[in-house]
Write a structure and sequence with these properties.
This protein is of the alpha+beta class. The chain folds into three domains: 2-39, no CATH class; 47-86; 104-173, no CATH class. The chain is 36% helix and 16% strand. The protein is built from three helices and six strands. A four-stranded mixed β-sheet has the order 4-3-6-5, with no helix packed on it. β5 (146-152) and β6 (158-163) form a beta hairpin. The chain is rod-shaped, with a radius of gyration of 45 Å. The N and C termini lie far apart (114 Å).
């Protein structure tokens, strides 16, 4: 049996001589590979693909600076937003305020309402935090609960908080039974 590889003829005599034929094929393929390698031009120095180029470094610096600017703007914007939305008012019983030392927290809500009306505070808004469920606002004081002294808001209305949860209470009446 004869084999022809790229112009060379090889004779195959038997299976025992198969290694001779394969060696000849390897030789022929090796010659073709050497010819192919010789025809390809290879630069003297290959590029280092792990080294960042100037373009990559420049893009990284621009993106980093942009992200730093975004983070800084977000921080400043948050402070401005919170400072514009949140207004603090002194508590009605704070030192120097009209009802300092009145001990409203030891009164029941109806008694605190009568005390406030006697001191000229009409139209009080009662912000109630019940023991279960969502809180609500009302102009009528609830029957029971811990009175938490409130403040006069920007609208000129006194807001008082009533905590109806067990274990509440503030000031002189903290920890005492709910009025």
């Amino acid at each position: 049996m004869l084999y022809q590889v790229k112009g060379s003829v090889f004779e195959h005599h038997s299976l025992v001589d198969g290694d001779l034929v394969m060696d000849a094929f390897d030789q022929a393929l090796g010659n073709r590979l050497a010819t192919l390698e010789a025809s390809v031009s290879v630069p003297d120095r290959l590029p280092d693909l792990n080294r960042p180029t100037q373009r990559h470094v420049g893009v990284s610096l621009v993106v980093g600076a942009f992200l730093a600017l975004v983070v800084a703007a977000t921080a400043v914007g948050s402070v401005v937003l919170v400072s514009n939305l949140v207004r603090g008012y002194p508590g009605i019983e704070s030192p120097g305020q009209p009802l300092a030392g009145a001990d409203l927290e030891c009164m029941s809500p109806p008694r605190a309402a009568a005390f406030l009306a006697g001191h000229g505070y009409a139209g009080v808004v009662w912000e109630v935090t019940p023991s279960a469920g969502a809180g609500y606002e009302t102009t009528t004081p609830p029957e029971h609960g811990y009175v938490v002294p409130g403040a006069i808001g920007g609208d000129g209305v006194l807001h008082m908080v009533i905590d109806q949860r067990a274990g509440g209470g503030v000031g002189a009446c903290a920890g005492k039974p709910m009025p």
